[in-house]
Amino acid sequence: xxxxxxxxxxxxxxxxxxxxxxxxxxxxxxxxxxxxxxxxxxxxxxxxxxxxxxxxxxxxxxxxxxxxxxxxxxxxxxxxxxxxxxxxxxxxxxxxxxxxxxxxxxxxxxxxxxxxxxxxxxxxxxxxxxxxxxxxxxxxxxxxxxxxxxxxxxxxxxxxxxxxxxxxxxxxxxxxxxxxxxxxxxxxxxxxxxxxxxxxxxxxxxxxxxxxxxxxxxxxxxxxxxxxxxxxxxxxxxxxxxxxxxxxxxxxxxxxxxxxxxxxxxxxxxxxxxxxxxxxxxxxxxxxxxxxxxxxxxxxxxxxxxxxxxxxxxxxxxxxxxxxxxxxxxxxxxxxxxxxxxxxxxxxxxxxxxxxxxxxxxxxxxxxxxxxxxxxxxxxxxx
Length: 383
Known about the structure:
Helix content is 36%, strand content 17%. It has helices at residues 23-42, 58-67, 71-88, 102-117, 184-195, 214-219, 251-260, 263-272, 275-299, 316-326, and strands spanning 8-11, 47-53, 95-98, 130-131, 136-137, 144-145, 155-156, 161-164, 199-203, 222-224, 228-232, 235-239, 333-336, 343-347, 350-354, 364-367, 373-376. Strand 1 (8-11), helix 1 (23-42) and strand 2 form a beta-alpha-beta unit. Helix 2 crosses helix 3 (71-88). The longest helix is centred in the C-terminal third of the chain and has 25 residues, at 275-299. The termini are far apart.
């Protein structure tokens, strides 16, 4: 039996007032909420649809500093633009306000005072960096230097995270009591990083999809076996290896994907094949794949150049996947690694980075505190 409510309040995520909303935000967040509200209104129910611009946060002050204007200038510009966009798309908010409004300040203050008077907070004194010239305390994102954990230069003070997007190993298969020999220095370095407090996130690829719990238990890695959308530096970032995307026209590849990802066949393989033979087969299979990519690399030198809109056959399936996904989901950035060729694709608000094979096309991406993603290639001009 459907539960009846006297009234319903519907809210949706508050967009940061440091940039415009795009079609992915609308399709993934605001249109579904609007559809539900319109449904309740058609049923003559008492419903209130409330939204607003989030005008507090470090990304806003960073943009203001970069543009040489005040944070108020930034939020005034983008609040007006965002509100107008919602109106033009027909999103039927009953109230669309901003977190700097007197009403919001008063309500937030009342919540805080009520909790404080009840003794719900723990008070303590802590040290914080202070800029003598600007006469202001500094958020961690304003502080850059050598990371005390991983010793990277230009690191920000509020986080130290490393993301590996698959194919870290040539071949990896875990038995219950056996893991592949070798990789000692790699595993040792990963364990060293996590021991220092560095968050290391590993997205498995097609060469190392058969991971178990060893890397998480012994090396402290955070394992993801499927794509994820994560919020990093105020941006929605879609991260995936990319080996099983846009393969509808490749029936053999789809068939092999189903075989290799089958838990039943994985269990049978672990019980029926001796580790020596399993690893020999795995290295032979990955060698065939690597050889194929090597032949493509000889023909794909131009893929290390900035994207100009021309056909890029090797990475184009992943870019096309990103185009389609962004039409219905609120995503700011895409990061892939499967195709072994570095590429930085920017089309309007779409931004896709594909990382190259470290052995052939060494590259990595850096996401700064302002949410800007940059593809780096040691020894070459960044794109």
